[in-house]
Amino acid sequence: MHALAECQCRFFLQNDPGLVEPLINQLQEMLRCLPLSDESERLRVGIAVKHAVLNGLYHGNLELPDELEDVYSDEGTKLVRERLEDPAFSRRTLVVEAHLTPMAAQFRIQHEGRGFKRSQFPTDFDVTRSSAQLVRGWILMHSIMDEVQLSADGRTQTLIKRAAAQSDLVVDDDDQ
Q1: In angstroms, rounded to a whole number, what is the distance separating the alpha carbons of residues 112 and 155?
Q2: Which of 3, 8, 36, 125 sits between 20 and 30 A of 105, alpha carbons compared?
Q3: Hey, which residues does 162 pair with through a beta bridge?
Q4: CA distance 34 to 110
Q5: What pairs with residue 108 in β-bridges?
Q6: Which residues contact 175 (CB under 8 A, 6 or more apart)?
Q7: pLDDT per residue of the chain (176 residues) written in tens, 0 to 9
């Protein structure tokens, strides 16, 4: 992957939470072409993208309430199961696009739900102000990525991570 010059890919995901982890694993492997400060940074980028995908799935396509604290709670699990059985929600698709070069990685996550509103997200990124999973994920994305954008219709999240400056790179003995 260190020899990769450019890669563009697009995934069309059904509303299946079981598809998220394999997708993130694939994207993290592809991230090896992007020189980051160290291995932990590559993992952090994967976590940020995972939160964007989960937000698109749960709060976008399945339209779970914004204030839901934990989609894995009994209440959240029940609501997810109901939405996955309802054709109005279950037939929606999540589109994940990745464009990677040695200079930057850009991820676009687009859902078919009603769209996020900018007012749903804090501007001060104080994680203590909300226990809602949607907001915590948004704050996490901003803390890891160089840029996070939300489209005007609220259906597309774009995350950008740039290569580390040469002075920030950690030399791994295995790479020598």
Answers
A1: 7
A2: 125
A3: 104
A4: 23
A5: 97, 158
A6: none
A7: 667 778 899 999 999 999 999 999 999 988 887 788 788 898 999 999 999 999 999 989 999 887 776 788 888 899 999 999 999 999 999 999 999 988 999 999 999 999 887 766 666 555 555 556 666 778 889 899 999 999 999 999 999 999 987 545 555 545 44
- Whether residue 74 contacts residue 83, with contact meaning beta carbons closer than 8 Å, is answered with no
Give the strand order in the sheet containing 104-110. Answer: 7-13, 94-100, 104-110, 156-162, 147-150
Tokens of 18: 């079981």
CB 101 within 8 A of CB 5: yes
Q: Which helix (H) or strand (E) holds 9?
A: strand 7-13
Structure tokens of 141? 């994305």
Coil vs helix vs strand at 157? strand
User: What tokens does 81 get?
Assistant: 């199961």
Distance CA 7, CA 30 (A): 8
The answer to whether 80 and 58 have CB atoms below 8 angstroms apart is yes
Task: For residue 144, give both structure tokens.
Answer: 């890891």
Please tell me whether residue 154 adopts helix, strand or coil conformation: coil
What is the pTM assigned to this prediction?
0.85
Backbone dihedral angles phi then psi of residue 35, each to the nearest 5 degrees: -70, 110
